[in-house]
């Protein structure tokens, strides 16, 4: 059975928006990112993430990390999209059921980047098996915050791993109890 792992870049003040402006990736963190990406078989994402990632990375080549993302299957939750490109498949009218079916299939784990509005559904339906927060030693000041617009009242997390990187970042891994 596969797991759904949410991996999110976060500033010290809880901002997750626009990590391309503040994320610190050196050789160590870049290698770790690619290593972790290789442990996943497919992406799960909402419409906005799908559209942004496709626009920013869908036509980029020559970067091992982005090449891997471009090659991976993607499963997209959307009420408005009727079709997709970029190795993407729509999850359909019941994304929770579709993800539960995907998780029951054999293979590598599924990954979701960022905490989005789609998390309201995923958290409510207990579909995220692991949260991996990459805390970067920067303060953004403003922007979308971690779990913004997500009811986390029933989310009880247990720390299962921590990793410090030379660039000052800390990766904290939590699983729901």
CATH topology: Dihydrofolate Reductase, subunit A
Oligomer: single chain
| Rounded radius of gyration (Å) | 16 Å
CATH class: Alpha Beta
Give the overall form.
Answer: globular
The overall pLDDT, averaged over residues, is 95
Structural class: alpha/beta
Q: Helix amount, in percent? A: 25-40%
Distance between the termini: 18 Å
- Major β-sheet strand ordering: 4-3-2-5-1-6-8-7
Number of helices: 5
Give a short overview:
This protein has helices at 27-37, 47-57, 64-71, 95-104, 119-124, and strands at residues 4-11, 40-46, 74-77, 88-90, 109-113, 130-136, 157-164, 170-176. The protein is of the alpha/beta class. It has an 8-stranded mixed beta sheet with strand order 4-3-2-5-1-6-8-7.
Please give a structural write-up.
The protein is α/β, with parallel strands linked by helices and 177 residues long. It has one domain (4-176): Dihydrofolate Reductase, subunit A. The protein is 26% helix and 28% strand. The chain contains 5 helices and 8 strands, in the order E-H-E-H-H-E-E-H-E-H-E-E-E. It has helices spanning 27-37, 47-57, 64-71, 95-104, 119-124; strands spanning 4-11, 40-46, 74-77, 88-90, 109-113, 130-136, 157-164, 170-176. An 8-stranded mixed β-sheet has the order 4-3-2-5-1-6-8-7. Strand 7 and strand 8 (170-176) form a beta hairpin. Helix 1 (27-37) runs parallel beside helix 3. It is globular, with a radius of gyration of 16 Å. The mean pLDDT is 95.
Question: What order do the helices and strands come in, and which of them pair?
Answer:
Blueprint: E1 4-11, H1 27-37, E2 40-46, H2 47-57, H3 64-71, E3 74-77, E4 88-90, H4 95-104, E5 109-113, H5 119-124, E6 130-136, E7 157-164, E8 170-176
Parallel strand pairs: 1-5, 1-6, 2-3, 2-5, 3-4
Antiparallel strand pairs: 6-8, 7-8
